[in-house]
Design goal:
Helix content: 25-40%
Distance between the termini: 37 Å
Largest sheet: 12 strands, mixed
Structural class: alpha+beta
Number of helices: 10
Radius of gyration: 20 Å
């Protein structure tokens, strides 16, 4: 055993993930082979070094690159980027959303940035489009989970646009030393174009959860890690996130994947952040509820934009908020949103 890395706790109590030295060596190998890491890079860490951001340190160090830790908050980040003349930044999408709307970023020289790696959650379409317009095609998605630290999927920056439009919810293709299958509820592989649970087999998959044998047995089966994430795969081998398996809603007999709904809403002009959760409903069974942060938004505007694309999947309730709550790891705190919804309506999913 090399380390215990704790899950973010965005949907429940954090769990200790047991990673061995072999696991970590596989993570570093994957990053060194499949990511563009150069010896003259200057990497700026903004997220906690105890989580995903810290996993980048060793591959850059082994390549001869420099690492620096950013000052806190947006103003500190901008100062750090300029002072260190950083070439690479790793962050969560919500940080980019705040960076783009902060007036101070217009006065900061960021021409030296050649790569922005992001992960932890999908990048909203509006943020992705604005970031590419501001920084150029330098955004690189990275999908992983603490149980398979960091290196499950990625995609070159130049492929983040398709036909001139940002690829919302994209996870990327599998790292070359990683096997991925999408499986249905019975554990059978699903064909391209259908949604299934993303299952991973690789040298960097965890040994199990610390002192939680039952939960370990539930996710490690026959040499595969069942991630709990739902995804689709296109003919080019690119995976797209649909949401968490336990978050899927059944509304009037239709399966609804919250992340697919959120991706459509996120493209509405003026929207900065979106999270979609489920709420029990006596008529429909469950209904999608959208928490939306942005400027000058109205519910009717959001409905008019979303309904032509979503149909029955259109959120039945809209909560306009200043900002989405986050865990210390930077992920949307779904539990906090569910608690707020229960406090307001008296209804929950349970």
């Amino acid at each position: 055993l090399c380390s215990l890395n704790y899950t973010s706790g965005s949907t429940g109590k954090p769990k200790g993930v047991m990673l061995t030295h072999r696991n970590w060596m596989a993570v570093y190998r994957n990053l060194l082979i499949d990511r563009d890491i150069r010896g003259d890079d200057r990497l700026l860490h903004y997220g906690p070094l105890s989580h995903a951001s810290g996993a980048y340190f060793m591959p850059f160090f082994l390549s001869g690159a420099t690492s620096a830790v950013s000052e806190p908050r947006i103003g500190g980040l901008l100062r750090s980027l300029e002072r260190e003349r950083s070439t690479v930044l790793t962050c969560v999408p919500s940080l980019l959303t705040r960076l783009l709307v902060d007036a101070r970023s217009e006065k900061t020289s960021l021409a030296h940035l050649r790569q922005i790696g992001f992960g932890g959650e999908p990048m909203p379409a509006n943020t992705l489009k604005s970031a590419i317009a501001k920084f150029g095609p330098i955004l690189v998605p990275n999908y992983g989970l603490t149980e398979a630290m960091m290196t499950v999927c990625t995609l070159p920056a130049e492929q983040m646009l398709r036909d001139g439009e940002p690829r919302a919810n994209v996870l990327g293709r599998a790292y070359r030393h990683v096997e991925i299958e999408l499986r249905d509820a019975d554990g059978r592989p699903v064909p391209d174009g259908e949604i299934g649970e993303l299952c991973v087999r690789a040298d960097h998959v965890m040994q199990g959860y610390w002192n939680r044998p039952d939960e370990t047995a539930a996710v490690l089966r026959d040499g595969w890690l069942y991630s709990g994430d739902l995804a689709g795969r296109d003919a080019d081998g690119v995976f797209t996130l649909a949401g968490r398996a336990k978050d899927m809603l059944i509304c009037g007999g239709f399966n609804i994947y919250p992340q697919e709904v959120a991706a459509v809403v996120a493209a509405c002009p003026g929207v900065d952040e979106v999270a979609v959760v489920g709420m029990r409903d006596p008529g429909w069974g469950e209904i999608p509820v959208a928490f939306v942060a942005g400027q000058g938004l109205e519910r009717r505007q959001l409905v008019a934009f979303s309904r032509p694309q979503l149909g029955i999947r259109t959120p039945r309730r809209w909560e306009l908020v200043e900002r989405l709550p986050r865990t210390p790891a930077g992920k949307v705190d779904v539990g906090s949103l569910q608690a707020r919804l229960t406090a307001v309506t008296g209804r929950s999913r349970s």
